[in-house]
Amino acid sequence: MAKDNMIQVQNLTKMFGDFTAVNNISFEVGKGEVFGFLGANGAGKTTAMKMLIGISKPTHGAATVAGYNVLTEAELVKRNIGYMSQRFSLYNDLTIKENIVFFGGIYGLSSKDIKEKSQTMINELGLHDMANSLVGSLPLGWKQKVAFSVALLHNPKIVFLDEPTGGVDPITRRQFWEMIYREANRGVTIFVTTHYMDEAEYCDRVSIMVAGKIEALDTPKNLKSQFRVDSMNQVFLKLARNIE
Amino acid sequence: MGIILNNISKSYANVPALDDISFEVAPGELFGLIGPDGAGKTTLFRILTTLLIQDGGNAAVAGYDVLKQYKDIRSHVGYMPGRFSLYQDLTVEENLTFFATIFGTTIEENYDLIKDIYIQIEPFKDRRAGKLSGGMKQKLALCCALIHKPKVLFLDEPTTGVDPVSRKEFWEMLKRLQQKNITILVSTPYMDEAELCDRIALITNGKILQINTPEAIIASFPKKIYKVRSSNTYQLIQDLRIYPDTHSAYPFGEYLHFTPKSEAFGPMDLSKYLEERHHKGIEVKETVATIEDTFMDLSKAHE
Fold this sequence. Notes:
Structural class of chain B: alpha/beta
Radius of gyration of chain B: 23 Å
Oligomer: heterodimer
Largest sheet of chain A: 6 strands, mixed
């Protein structure tokens, strides 16, 4: 494995009975890379992601994430990654501060660290007035920005983002991506799924899963020239249509 | 006979969800309600489908008043809520039969209307609704909303979380339904879908920002807009933020969309500025605004 690869996947396969949800996929993601993991609903993205974050065991194949084997060192994988999704992010009936303290505790940060981190976070997000508000009362876009920061509390080398911007307003969606760029610039690896094809263009490289397989993997620029189209939306439509 | 809203307002515990909303949807029109999560779209749908009573104003659907004639409305509209709300432990066919029976009709009677859509899920008609994939659930929900041949169809974020291929297919289905003289009010957070509607209302924080055809909304964009790129997008955003002539700069796919403050702005000035800041592969070109540009510009002005 190359030294600066944060994710290394080899022939990863997951079967449920006779059904192959993830079919022999292989790829690498480098340090500080923004990697877009795309695919139609039901293509196997979530199953693949579950294996990478150590909560589902591969049927065949191997993967290392942040230097740890997802099969034999799943607990270490979990401790060294950040994760957020639209469905599970923060506790709505805790305040922003309480959420930070809670997740800080889960990741084993000292109370001194938690205190410092929450100050920095609240400053960076400009959330002074809302630090003691319940998360449930925040607009979705704010929730997602806080959730992203919480996923970074323990300084993970890699963060998995599962449709982080679904339904978020266009301005906040872009502010969210600026946060992603900022972290990538600091060397954090970003693994992100999205249904917004303009967001696919923001990624350094993009993979497209179709029926359990990775059918395309390259920079947005190369994918567009390979398929002779001028947007990632068209690349996506071409790939997914061809299979039907 | 379409939809009419006059000065509709609704608050939840003093937090306004809808603030003085008025618009009309013509019979047979495909009208889009475009706005993010929390804009008030669902509240509006619930008032129009008689599931929620407004605080002020009045509204009529298919010619019936939402308060006085709510029972008439219920038998003449189809409603597909944002959250999947069919019976998970009934099969596909049982769900459809159930909804047909409730409305005093049969699957056979209006089969023509749902045929195109139902045919795609018919192979799974004995499967329980809870076991369907997202795309199939969505198709079943649409069939159930259509089975009594409604005059007006309400679709609350039918494509949220749905991949681009299925989204495209869904919109093709809507276009075909429109041909059958059904008035459609559909909401979406995806701005690219706005262009597929006859007219749209841009909505945020309970207020309407603008109502018009997609073409007219794009044409109303008040500024010159440029697409800008360089080999380092992150640095480009930072440098555009501090450029004195920047009015707005937002990532837009592989480019940033940039609007200048001054009328006198020339693209060469910006290229030169970026060169001085060591950017490579600089490109600054005038471009055409999108619905999303307009939405962001209007909501920025509204703050």
